[in-house]
Design goal:
Distance between the termini: 48 Å
Radius of gyration: 18 Å
Number of strands: 14
Low-confidence stretches: none
Number of helices: 8
Mean pLDDT: 95
Largest sheet: 8 strands, antiparallel
Strand content: 15-25%
């Protein structure tokens, strides 16, 4: 009698077959083709452009600009902004975070109680310097002051065809089974908070060629990055990180993660907010499925 497969990195067959779960277990990522509708992605793109053009108030979102284009002083709007973050309380973009097709896959990986913890719409405009247009090899767990890592998952959806010419994702398969490494700024000309690991450039990588609507899901310890946009067009993707609502917070002071915590706390302080790094993550998260847990308790001791 055949034995049942043993899964460590996935929770259930809610939206994944055994074969899909095994692929994620082995590689630390999986791509589901055509998961998000083109019409929804067009809405998200227009919302992004409206933010870039100042037609819609950005509220509590963070708008980031490409460093090389900013220094040149010529680009503006969609040609300058390379990312908006923390859109979980935007009426339009939150639809992506709570998309049932995405949440079903996430719940299959981390369990039924799902909290969205981080959100980004990433834009690679044309004519940016290669050093700022790429995202260095990194692990997402570097940014997160909560655990366990196996109960955290990212969704990343291509908003148009994405390949090696315009800066597709790449990943080191199986690297989710490694440890969390120290991250630094790998280049003098690097966008804010684009930390990376050093010494892994020779590792074999998989290029994630994706069509509009294709969605990658990946583990927070997976080594991954993205290449530069070498075309005269844009390259957009929308992404949310999710954590089990039962995750707990850790103190990153004195660890390899202290550099990003200090950086984020300093940015918050410039905005008149003096608060612990862990509290920042609690404040910007939002439940999307299941029940509240330790992660969501604002009054709890951290």
């Amino acid at each position: 009698m055949a034995s049942c497969p043993v899964f460590k990195y996935t929770a259930s067959n809610r939206a994944l077959t055994n074969e899909q779960r095994q692929f994620y277990e082995d590689n630390g990522f999986i791509i589901i083709r055509g998961l998000v509708s083109p019409a929804d992605l067009d809405r998200y793109q227009q919302r992004f452009i409206d933010f870039c053009d100042g037609k819609v108030d950005k509220g509590g979102m963070t708008v980031m600009k490409d460093l090389s284009l900013l220094k040149e002083g010529k680009a503006k709007g969609e040609y300058l902004v390379n990312k908006i973050q923390e859109f979980l309380y935007d009426d339009v973009l939150f639809d992506y975070a709570k998309d049932p097709k995405i949440v079903e896959v996430v719940a299959s990986i981390i369990g039924d109680n799902v909290t969205a913890v981080h959100s980004m719409l990433i834009n690679k405009p044309p004519d940016a310097h290669e050093a700022t247009s790429k995202h260095p090899l990194h692990q997402d767990l570097h940014y997160f002051p909560f655990r366990p890592a196996d109960k955290i998952c990212a969704s990343w959806t291509a908003m148009e065809r994405i390949d090696e010419k315009n800066g597709c994702l790449f990943a080191v398969p199986g690297s989710h089974k490694l440890e969390l490494y120290a991250h630094v700024y790998p280049d003098a000309l690097t966008n804010k908070a684009y930390h990376g690991v050093i010494g892994f450039d020779d590792k074999p990588k998989v290029m994630m060629i994706m069509e509009k609507g294709d969605t990658a899901f990946f583990h927070p310890i997976l080594l991954h990055g993205s290449g530069p946009n070498l075309t005269k067009g844009f390259r957009k993707a929308i992404s949310v990180h999710y954590a089990s609502s039962d995750c707990h917070f850790i103190d990153v002071k004195g660890t390899t993660q202290q550099n990003i915590a200090d950086e984020v706390e300093a940015i918050a302080k410039k905005r008149g907010i003096s608060v612990d790094y862990r509290v920042i993550w609690k404040m910007k998260s939002r439940l999307v499925a299941g029940q509240l847990g330790k992660f969501n308790e604002m009054g709890s001791k951290i």
